[in-house]
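Researcher: Re-running this chain for the archive, since the previous output was lost when a drive failed. Same request as before.
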Amino acid sequence: MNVARILLIEDEDSIRHLISYDLRNAGYEIVQCADGKTARDTGLSEAFDIMIIDWMLPEISGIELVRLFRGRGIDSVMMMLTAKDEEEDILEAFDAGVDDYITKPFSPRELLARIQAHAKRIRKTSARQLTMGKLIMDLSRREVTVAGKPVSLTKKEFELLEYMLRNPQIVLSRDNILNEIWDFDYDGDTRIVDVHIFKLRTKLQGSGIVIRSLRGVGYKLEEEA
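Model: Regenerated structure tokens:
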């Protein structure tokens, strides 16, 4: 089995060493960076399955790194690890392209569980396609097209859409989605689901399918009437 390669970008020595120790013991390959400039050069020159990125970094901020990496077509799982916990910060991070958002102080066990969940999903492959309306999802290539035109999705957006396509016409609660897509016992704000649903709706325009909200219950994917 391939070992996931992780880029850890964190300027606080104690936190960086703690995370590195835990991840190495769990069998992951870790590369460490303590500032934004080094992280930029490393992230652009080497391939990583997962990036753990602190927001507040010397020289180049974590959010700038996310935008830079996504702009260069890097599709690594990007996890923001930060003390910034305001709603606008979370929205900005997901808008920039992060797949996960963890606030400090954090539980090392929860961080490891999230990383393991992401790594497990990275290893999954399939040669099948899912279709609905004018949308085609190629699971082997991890590509989505709407009316023949490619649609750019983050890893989490792709996984959420796949989950909904496999469960059309079924009401999926936020807890269902969290357990399936984030694959851990999420003890926090369910806005992470709402943000991804909002982004998907925007990207699915013209597909002939719609994500309907059922207030207080969840979401349902169905074809437009």
